Amino acid sequence: MSDTKISALPAISTAADSDLLPVVQGSGGSAVTRQATIAQLRSGILSDRAYHVRDFGAVGDGTTNDAPAIQAAVDAMNSAGGGILEFGPHAYRLASPVVVDSVAITFQGAGYTEGSAIADGTWLSIDTTGFTPFTFTGGGARGSTVRNLAVRQAHNASQVPGWAPTDYDFVFRVQDCQGAVEFKNLLLVGVNRGIWCDNSGRLNIESLRGQVFTAGIEIDRAFDTCRIQHVHFWPFFSADDDVVRWQQQNTDTVVLHRVDGIFMDDIFALGARSVLRFVSSGTGSVAKFYLGNFYADFALYPIWIQNNGVTGQIANATTQSELFNGSGAPLTGSVGVRIDGNNTRLQVGNLRVDDAQSNAIRVNGTGNRLDIFSFRAEYYNQLNDGSAAIHLANAASGTPNAVYLGSPAMLGNGNAGPTMNSGTNGHVALGAPAGRIDRPGVMIGATDNGFFAPSSTELAASIAGVEVMRAASGGTVTLGGASGAHGFGVTTPTSSVNRVAVTAAATAGTPAVSAEGTDTNIALAIAAKGTSTVRLHTRGNTAFEVNATGTPANYIRTDATAAGGTPRFIAQGTDTVVALQLSPKGATYVESTAPFRLPSYSVTALPAAATYTRSLIYVWDGSSNRRLAVSDGTNWRWPDGVVVS
């Protein structure tokens, strides 16, 4: 009864769940004594309390294998519907597996003090190989979380040349959960392999620090968006040269196989073969990945794409590829961005590559395309062998590789290495949209000034929205206005080998228009249209004009001569006999500034008079009698009218 005195209750030596205990409610004269069973009190006090591994036998001394106690806690939580499993600030040694496969469980640590050895906070210590410490598997484990704890693995090999880590399995495996499992605020100290995720989308990793040796994070068959953010890999375990240099040849920080739409941001790693690696596992490629801020330090291939068909975007990436503690020497064979697969589609906002031994960017395979808005390379081509900042493999078959730059590359300390290698059908270009005459695809100075493409086979320039130049793939160039209303045009026939050259001149020189080409002798034609004339101007007006009274068949040729020769006007054409005429304008005369020299004939060798009507010749008789003779159309006559005989 509620008012039973405590002294009236029966005495007991040990309490069972069904035994009653007095509970006093209130105080003084209003106090009331009530009764409750041990089970009722336990249920009320412990309702929804977090579980603790020490309640299930965990010791936390860093020596005892606490994995069975942790598994016992997990098993108890399975029937309770999950919950939070607390570890407290202790070091727990794990020498056997823990499996979560039925309910969502949160493994809650008490934080940690960063360092190379186990210190304050919650630490998981692993010194035995051949097992996976934590596995999350099956749909029931979705929603599980691991947070606020540190993991340390023992590596007892002497840190000398040839050092290699102990071959531990992944600390955490997320397998076939097909849903979210989260890792937050973890420290991995000297961990060989960190987190594996397969056939489980929506993985979330946030605030991951540590030093890993073979793989930090590896994901495959993630068909829903995963997230990795705030990752910092640094020599927490050891900064020994032999350890970090082993990492530079063997460590892959983040490895992605078939992953769809993953978000990554704030990724940093020091000492690795690759910091972001895309590799095939036979399940597909990485599609539409997004990487925000990325910094790879002392890495051989900071971004390494080996799989085919990878697509994604990078906002900001910086890479550096020195040999660790190598006095500035580059890693042998180092490349900032390396693509070995085919048909990659990669967009990069800002990319800086430092200390690549040969190429800052190396694109192997075929059909790859990189779009880089801003690119800077420092200290590339350190072999001084002419290596280009961007190397594109020649595609013997298939689509050539291409890199499009959004702005001119900034290249420094590259031993005069070129932007792009020769001997390839790939290309590096600055791409632009086609645009239009009033809004060119490439604008210069104003919105309606620049270059645009009127069609897929033409390139044009506009000023103030007016076309001033157009060039077509067929070899036609127009200047001074829109094509068809232009002031100057150039037409290049197919297989052209001869051309016109316009040569400017220095002071006192003479600019020239000349014929050039592979032929030994090349004529030069200036043609008017229709029946119009060709005019040469000087002092602002016509100085010489060429006209034709019909379709030219006969014409005038002028011959220059060598020293001692006589320049001449010569009648040429298709007719056998072509006269040559000088005609003054109006009733005037033809004037010579020197005497005319007439042809000379002997009396016995006169030409036919009928051929040279009204013509003058000079006749001599072989001795001293030399006089002018005139043809009347029948005979040659002396000036006094007597027939020459």
TrEMBL record:
<dbReference type="Pfam" id="PF12708">
    <property type="entry name" value="Pect-lyase_RHGA_epim"/>
</dbReference>
<dbReference type="InterPro" id="IPR011050">
    <property type="entry name" value="Pectin_lyase_fold/virulence"/>
</dbReference>
<feature type="domain" description="Rhamnogalacturonase A/B/Epimerase-like pectate lyase">
    <location>
        <begin position="53"/>
        <end position="121"/>
    </location>
</feature>
<protein>
    <recommendedName>
        <fullName>Rhamnogalacturonase A/B/Epimerase-like pectate lyase domain-containing protein</fullName>
    </recommendedName>
</protein>
<dbReference type="InterPro" id="IPR024535">
    <property type="entry name" value="RHGA/B-epi-like_pectate_lyase"/>
</dbReference>
<dbReference type="InterPro" id="IPR012334">
    <property type="entry name" value="Pectin_lyas_fold"/>
</dbReference>
